[in-house]
Amino acid sequence: MIATLIALVLTALAAPAIISWLGRRGFYLLAAAPAAAMVGVIVEWPRAGGSPRLESIHWVPALHMDIDLRMDTLSAIMSILVLGVGALVLCYCAEYFDNDDSPSGPRIRRRVAGFGAQMVAFTGAMFGLVVSDNMIVLYIFWEATTVLSFLLVGFYAQRATSRRAATQALLVTTAGGLAMLAGIVILGERAGSYLLSDVIANPPTGTAVTVAVVLVLIGALSKSAIVPFHFWLPGAMAAPTPVSAYLHAAAMVKAGIFLVARLAPGFGDLMAWQISVVGLGMLTMVLGGWRSLREFDLKLILAFGTVSQLGFLMVLVGTGDANVALAGVAMLVAHALFKASLFMVVGVIDHSTGTRDVRKLARLGSTAPSLAVIAAVASASMAGLPITLGFVGKEAALTSLLDVDGFDGWQGPVSTAVVVFGSILTMAYTTRFLWGAFGRKVRREPSAAVARMHHPSVAFIAPAGILAALGVAAGFVAGPLGSLFEPYAETLPTNGHELEHLALWHGFTLPLLLTVIVIVGGVGTFVVLRRRRRRLGFHTPPLGNADRIYDAVLRGADTVSLALTRVTQRGSLPLTQGVIMVTTIVVPTVALLIGARNRLDLNGFDSFAQVVIGGIMIAAAIATTVLRNRLAAALVVGVTGYGCGMIFAFYGAPDLALTQFLVETLTLVIFVLVLRKLPAEAEARHSTGFKPLRALIGLAFGALLVVIGLYAAGARTTTPVADDLPKAAYELGNGANAVNVLLVDIRAWDTLGEVSVLLVAATGVASMVFRHRRFGAAPRVADAARFHGADPDAVDDMPTARTTWLRGSELRDPRHRSMVLEATTRLIFPTMVVASIYFFFAGHNAPGGGFAGGLTMGMALVLRYLAGGRYELGEAIPVDAGRILGLGLALSVGTALASVFAGAPALSSATIELTLPVLGDIKLVTALFFDLGVYLIVVGLVLDVLRSLGARLDIEETSTTAGRASAGADATGMGARP
């Protein structure tokens, strides 16, 4: 299982390169990974059907987040569906997307390459979800499918409908996922274990557990589009058809069904469970079938039909009876086969005719008979007609539901009646689908769309044909299949009845009579609605428009947020800061007054130098509040930062002092770059009088922080853990620099979170500056020719063909050049690069590390930019900053995962002893690779900031200056006319 996950992840990473190399045919190569994984699951099936196969990797044991995987019968069934259908859909993609030899081929190929990677990644996430035994890990895979679904549904990002559909699906399923996370935490804490197998084997009880189960069910119901969350699924039909055939037929929407089936043995007897799962499932089955009969788009007919079928499945797997659950598993497999096949058929129709509207399709059955046969076979299984697996599952469902005796004997008859009525609607919309897509419709000639269609290739319709054929073949081997499914059914109670076996023929029974009623009633419903649609008012939604309710909820949330921020966020910095400070004052003060307080141990200062530095910092902070010149204020603020670094140094913390000095210097550079776009002087204050309230809040805030610091410092009653850090750093992290070992080993999780925040910050800054395109390297000297004639700083003699130092400086206006700075840069830049590398390698045992080394390299880039301008920045590092950031994060995360795959907790380090020529014996700590990721992220951050706030703003300023000069020239010319 772990090997399968790794293979799928690697395939997803390689997918863009494969499709860029092979074009659309690369999808066949991508399909090999899930196909091979499916074969592996089938080979292991006997073991999965008996005792479950377990695999585990230590990840974060303290947070109950070990990667515990479990392959039992239910997981094996879902894995085969996820992997097998996924492989066929990838093959289908090879024919679905447009020919990449067209004029727009390169652009299409780039988009399709990303699509392929997302599809394979989704397959991996879905596989991880169904084999996860740890509930926290299951939730992580659950949310991964949500994010990937958002990307796949929004594939046509240029279309407003696609963006709305993707956002709607994301919001609905994420909201349900958050509720589910809360339920998982409560359930895990009450059960004393986060393993699903443990929770189901020994289910906890109590009101809190009932609440937790309901919260988990909210996530399951939202994922599987059960009322009231059903509306997102039809909207998601804006996605490409392969997405609908996979996510919305065999994979993502089955996640909620799977989770309910997994929890049913432990909690299926709860009243809240029966009401929410069975009750809402029946309502969904009827509502979805009714809505399906109203649509004219073939894809929407199937979409609402899917909603109906998901409700049916929820009833079966949620009833909590062994026989009903066995029928539910059979229907789960049947639905994946026939619905994925039918979605593929719709995709072929749309691709070949250019329409999915049943009013524009006539005589397609005679024009494309093979496609019609495939659709008819798959539709027969959807309608539950004999010899198909759908018929076997539906017969088993009707038989077992009649024997359910919950709710004083009412549950069985009521459930059976609702299922029969829902099945009549299913038969009706199945007939309408076939008639709408392939019927003659009283026409002697094909419709215009059908007449000009291009016939699909065999490879295009083969995946749909394979799935449809499997749906029929499975009906003939229902007995052997049932014996494979029964180990799951045996985990539920039989309620006094023997466990029935799946069979294609049970004789003339009451369920068979009900099937005849369903067939006759469904065809009759179709005929009546076709002829008297308007007269019956069938165009009116039965329970209102869910999309409008969704929009109303979003508008309500906007209204509430605007009303709230109108009071708390009025655009006034003093008000916002005052709210924060007052909150910070009140809450800790109350805690100090009502809580126990330890004795204060006051120590004013350790040396007179600290008093001097502290006084300077206080004076600088006060001066900042009265200075009107923005640059002067920024420089004075920097004094407080440098003073803090000096205090670190006096306390014997050279590593902290070095980092503080570097960060403060870089911050000042960023301040200066931003201040170029602002007036030199701040706006004059409207009121210069003394404000007692503000002064009181400021003094109270400062005094409270001092008091809290004193109490916190004196709160220790035992020896602080910091005393053991130097020894732990050497023994556990094999390093003498406790600060660096703490960052990259002992507390590496914190560091990973912090560098992720740095990456987000860099992306945010660039997104505000680059409004249209995010990525791209800084311009180089060779790019200056594109701007020549429009850039007044450009010179006639382009230095593109000469090898010179600081080539970019030759493109600057001589008035803006500093020969002293250029000469200094020539001397200092190589030294700073060497110092950066030294800090990086020496940081494990001496002051430095990846963060300090990256900041030093960043300062070297700042120097090159200040000396040579934006073109020199491109010459210094001609690489896209986004790639450096991504590589750094990938390296840090990869180091964390490497230890997991080695059988140790995440971010564990190891020491490798090597003997190298010249260098001799050396010890290489694997935390160095994590630190290298930190180094690259810091360098990428500085480069991105310089590119955004430096080079980009330079270009905008140059364009503005050129525009003004051009306008001035035009005005002068006009004024010279007689």
From TrEMBL:
Domain Na+/H+ antiporter MnhB subunit-related protein: 820-943
Recorded superkingdom: Bacteria
UniProt keyword terms in alphabetical order: Antiport, Cell membrane, Ion transport, Membrane, Transmembrane, Transmembrane helix, Transport
The keyword Translocase is assigned to this record: no
Record's bilayer topology term: Multi-pass membrane protein
GO molecular function: antiporter activity
Localization (cell): Cell membrane; Membrane
Domain NADH:quinone oxidoreductase/Mrp antiporter transmembrane: 132-406
Annotated protein name in UniProt: Na+/H+ antiporter subunit A
Transmembrane parts of this sequence: 73-92, 112-130, 136-157, 169-188, 208-233, 270-288, 300-318, 324-349, 370-393, 413-438, 458-482, 502-529, 575-596, 608-627, 632-651, 657-675, 695-714, 751-770, 819-840, 846-863, 884-904, 924-946
Listed GO biological process terms: monoatomic ion transport
Ranges of residues in domain NADH-Ubiquinone oxidoreductase (complex I) chain 5 N-terminal: 62-101
Domain MrpA C-terminal/MbhD residues, every copy: 616-679
A GO cellular component entry from the record: plasma membrane
Domain named MrpA C-terminal/MbhE: residues: 699-773
Broad class of where this protein is predominantly found: membrane
